[in-house]
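Hey, I was hoping to borrow your eyes for a little while. No rush at all, and the record is pasted right below.
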Amino acid sequence: MTSGMEKKPKGDPSFSAPIANITVPVGREATMTCIVHDLVSFKVAFLRVDTQTILTIQSTVITKNHRIGITHTENRIWQLRIKDVAFLRVDTQTILTIQSTVITKNHRIGITHTENRIWQLRIKDVRESDRGWYMCQINTDPMKSQVGYLDVVIPPDILDYPTSQDMIVREGYNVSLHCAAVGSPEPTITWRRERGKPLLSVGSREIFSAEGPSLIIPRVNRHHMGAYLCIASNGIPPTVSKRVMVIVN
């Protein structure tokens, strides 16, 4: 009895599941998983989509090193060219090139697989520059591929400049406090005072916190004197803060 579904011929590999998009904090390890069915003698490769850089082919890590090049004349005279100064450790038998492909070991990138079916690209010590689309490819004709996105998140960091420093101001003047922070996603800035004191008083209402890169204190008086906290957060720990002291004369 024939099933209503068309059976794929043996040796026709396919993907069993899509590559999941992942989010990884900077400095951690990222794993992109590609699940392949019926691979047989075909090969799996991982590529960086935006640069079209081949990262791995099967269990071999392949990364581009722009200091190393290979040229040949009529497929007979092959010349390895190394820009700047570099040395090759003979005892490690490190392969630098095969034909016209540069192959170098990148200790941050690795590839593992289980029973030739579950292929995992591993990127250690993730950097912001690793953010982007990654492709898992099978060398069929036509080629089969799928992509997944690696997002790299970065905890907040408060910049010394143009963030305000401790200041001395005259009573009755307006004061502007500024706080600048970087991170991914973009941090939110919150202002508070130490010891739970109110930031501002509007009529009979007291304001204990405010959001935004700047805090304006109109017509300061001695009640405004003290420490103000600029707090930067973006959901990626740790939250950071800077203390700005305001002294009123």
